[in-house]
Backbone:
């Protein structure tokens, strides 16, 4: 494993977070941490009517993620390393996108109190992908709760992720152009990406497959909007 003892993988819905986290954990022998498997009882209703169910949906996720993340700082979990398929801060990305002004003010007070108590990753890997790519992958995996996700929402979410990580400075960051890369089915892509993760120790770096020469430019343009 790289010097990082705690690596978090991030990206919008359908970017490939869970797949990459599993592959990295298998490669390094680290403990794999996936998002809480509790089914959010508000999720389907949120996708059908976001305005009516956004606050309940987000609060459920916030508390579930906090409970899991708080457990990471206990015991000797870091002795073997951790790879997580999400970053706690992602919760705030979704909240800012879906909550109205008053709801977000209340949410943010709770979020700030919880976030201050949690361990920080040593490295964050951001899987950047276009909305149309995310939508295609979501449709292929055909999860019931995601069936009502609208393209416009995915576009907003992809832009929100780009903006968030364009300003990210809390930890080292590796931005991966995830539109064309196949790190599960293509051994060359997988090895190149895993080696890049191992090499990233500080600052902001970009991993751009030869098939995606515009990826870094797209990230920079979208981040400045």
Residues:
């Amino acid at each position: 494993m790289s010097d990082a003892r705690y690596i978090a993988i991030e990206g919008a819905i359908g970017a490939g977070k869970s797949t990459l986290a599993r592959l990295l954990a298998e490669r390094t022998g680290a403990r794999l941490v996936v998002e809480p498997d509790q089914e959010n009882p508000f999720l389907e209703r949120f996708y059908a009517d976001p305005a009516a169910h956004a606050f309940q949906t987000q609060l459920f996720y916030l508390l579930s993620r906090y409970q899991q993340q708080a457990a990471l700082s206990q015991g000797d979990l870091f002795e073997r390393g951790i790879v997580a398929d999400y970053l706690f801060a992602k919760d705030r990305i979704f909240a800012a996108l879906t909550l109205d002004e008053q709801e977000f003010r209340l949410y943010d007070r709770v979020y700030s109190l919880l976030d201050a108590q949690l361990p920080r990753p040593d490295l964050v890997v951001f899987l950047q992908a276009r909305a149309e790519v995310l939508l295609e992958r979501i449709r292929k995996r055909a999860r019931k709760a995601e069936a009502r996700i609208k393209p416009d929402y995915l576009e907003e979410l992809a832009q929100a992720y780009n903006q968030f990580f364009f300003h990210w400075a809390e930890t080292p960051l590796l931005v991966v152009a995830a539109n064309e890369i196949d790190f599960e089915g293509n051994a060359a892509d997988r090895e190149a990406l895993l080696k890049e993760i191992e090499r990233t120790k500080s600052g902001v770096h970009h991993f751009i497959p030869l098939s995606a020469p515009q990826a870094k430019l797209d990230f920079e343009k979208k981040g400045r909007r």
